[in-house]
Amino acid sequence: MARRLRLAVVLAVALSRAATAGVFADVPWCGWFYNAVEKMASLEAVQGYADGTFRGPQPLSRDEFALAIMQFRPAATSAMWAALGGYPTAIARVTERQETERLHILALLARHDADLVQLTGRLPFVDARMTGKVNGEATGFTTACGALNDLAARHESDMAALTAGIDRLAGAAAALRPRTKALEEDVAALWKLFGRQAEAAKAVADTLAGGKAAVADLGDGVR
Question: What residues does each domain of the chain span?
Answer without folding.
Answer: 3-83, 86-185
